[in-house]
UniProtKB/TrEMBL annotation:
Its main location: membrane. It is found in: Cell inner membrane. This is Phosphonate transport system ATP-binding protein. It comes from Halomonas campaniensis. SUPFAM superfamilies: P-loop containing nucleoside triphosphate hydrolases. Residues 254-268 have a biased composition (Polar residues). One of its GO terms (cellular component) is plasma membrane. Residues 2-246 form the ABC transporter domain. Residues 245-281 are annotated as: Disordered. It holds the Pfam family ABC_tran.
Amino acid sequence: MLTLSQVTKRYPTGDRALTDIDLTLPAGQVMALIGPSGAGKSTLIRCVNRLVEPTSGSIRLGDTELTRLSGRELRRARRAMGMIFQEYALVDRLTVMENVLSGRLGQVGFWRSFLRRYPADAVTEAFRLLERVGLPHAIDKRADALSGGQRQRVGIARALLQDPQLLLVDEPTASLDPKTSRQIMRLIRELCAERELGAIINIHDVALARQFADRIAGLRAGEIVFDGRPEALDAETLTTIYGEENWGEEEWDTQGQAADEASSSSVEPATRLSLATGGAS
Ligand SMILES: Nc1ncnc2c1ncn2[C@@H]1O[C@H](COP(=O)(O)OP(=O)(O)OP(=O)(O)O)[C@@H](O)[C@H]1O
């Protein structure tokens, strides 16, 4: 279980990115974090794994107070948090298998990491995970020979090879087409259920969040302004999170019109388009 209490982040520039965030994520729960650009979503995720230092407050993962850790203890705690990225963060010239195994880099000794020699159990588990994420035939392919969806599957397998207690997921579908996006969200959801893994998924696509998350938290200007079940996310709540907009679907009489609108908007096109298309069916 992850617990954030009164977490505040103020950047040296003076930007107050998070203010007094209180949040508890039980094991096995998939929480989507939505909100407009600049609301603080990435900052929140990065405070949890301490890529960003919170200015004040407490962040506990199980019995461990993460904000007090440094050095080796912090590295150990980070291993308990698998990270999945929008741009996959794979090493292009390495194979799929090598990329997945790199999830264990922090756990094997220096020479093994240096020589990329992994223990047999890590290799067996990597095979198993690649099978589970649907890539058993791509093991020897170079990462740069894969499609975006396949790359994200590798990223997911790599995160799981760490055997984490928690997944931190930053815009996992932002570079993917709508069908692949749904497949990836479904996969993350299934894996969280199978492994009793909690996940925080930073996502702009409200329809995807609605369909695949157990819970949605809405951030606005660094504060949580909505925290509840996906069904409770109505037009009024969307206005609270994103600001005034006609969220009713009657505005969108054709998908084409919706797509035109979305492509001409500079902010959160995925959010607008997903709402327009009524989300996933
Ligand atoms: N390294 C930084 N230095 C100074 N200010 C920052 C830094 N990173 C983020 N901020 C500021 O903190 C606030 C929150 O930014 P953050 O990136 O967490 O928002 P976000 O909700 O993830 O946005 P997006 O959806 O566009 O990724 C913004 O005002 C941003 O300008």
